[in-house]
Predict the 3D structure of the following.
Amino acid sequence: MKIAVLRHLAIAAGVAALLGTTAMAEDPVRGGTLITTLPQTPRHLNPAVQSGIVTGAPGAQLFAAPLRYDQDWTPQPYLAESWAWSDDGLSMTLNLVQGATFHDGEPITSEDVAFSVETIKANHPFKTMFGVVEAVETPDDHTAILKLSQPHPALLLAMSSQLMPIIPKHIYGDGQDPKSHPRNGKDVVGSGPFKFVEFTADQQVILERNDDFFIEGRPYLDRIVYRIIKDASARAIGMENGELHMTTFENTVRNIKRMSENDDLVATDEGYAAIGPINWLAFNTGSDGPLADKRVRQAIAYAIDKNFILNAIMLGLSQESKTGIHPGSPLYYPDVNGYDLDIEKANALLDEAGYEKDANGIRFSLTIDHGNPTTKPQAEFTKASLAKVGIDVSVNSFVDFPTWANKISNHDFDMTWDTVFNWGDPVIGVHRTYDSQNIKEGVIWSNTQQYANERIDELMAAAGQEIDPDKRAALYKEFQEILADDLPVYWTNTLPYHTIYNKKVGNPPLGIWSSSSPYDLVFLKE
């Protein structure tokens, strides 16, 4: 068997790398309460059956996972002190750290790992994470062997805190529906560095130190208080007046700019590479109108000044993104057409496609929706931009998320601005957008563009089981090149997520999973 990165105690030698910080040059201080934020109320606190950042943040503190990741996308030991692939890539053996217990004192065993995989596979919306896991064998209490129907290169990323919490079988195996289990939001029992204290909807989540955490001496903090503050300006004020120590997933650019000028605060976009948020303009390629022609989609991209979006709308706080894979991913391939502003080329493509201007200078009309209020400026800018090449655009006012999601998921749109996450590996968060088998009415963030390309399907199928990193990168290179030409989506930029923290905070969560990383290394300097 091929043994991967091994011993659990090796974490001690590389703790600074684990969270991508330099603060470990200082001696951690034990004690104190970290006051941080959630931008909305979580449905509950169990990431095994619920995706999303507001569940993932407290969930990563309550539940330990087999692995954790450093800032260089390298897996590190966590509940699994070692792991190994079989030579044929069809099984993964996890060797669990011994002596680890849940918060109620019950030991963590391989049966809990098997139960967690089964629960996630049956209930989590990201079906591709464990879809190829056929069984989990448990030869002893500390060994779990995942048996696969095919090699699964995304498996290691799927074993991190945001995606694979180990939940207790003795609690969740009682026959109740895991999605609505009463222990998801009350008296939560996990095995993470912090224990449940309180969850009050629209107010706060309170956690306290797990003194029996399986990594000796951690966590450093006594408590974490997540204040649920939905208003971005209120979060900014709380940071500036010292009421809050840290806030994550901030994307209101004017607030970020303002807070970055405060001498007591640090604003950084580090930590969001695995979340992988991208802003894009999606086209309904399955319509009978102009958008079925890739020349029209290319012309629209050439007519929109991406630099205006990056510098005027995003205030320079966002990176250019040329493909559906986030620029922070090792699999991102930037050497594709980025569709720099070229009005002459846009007009030529529209002429070539057979859409000539009428007496009023109009070629045809389209509608544009936007997935949330933050993308309204892009929608209005698109309307003004396309008017210059004879495309009349009407912007549909944003009503609420359910209304927008119903329209888009049922293919009742021409164009829409949206923000979509990669969730670590393309198998988990990228394939869903371009897979021709994933054109499903009523399912948002599936292939709502109705895009179908046989070669793209083949490349995704091959890359989804290619273990060799170089061969896999080559497959995704071709994947991105084809998509950049077909342009079912015009990708423009990363969402400017930032972590803002007071300089009193040591080891803020700046690894690839941001606040969905365990906070056992975080401390307050005073």
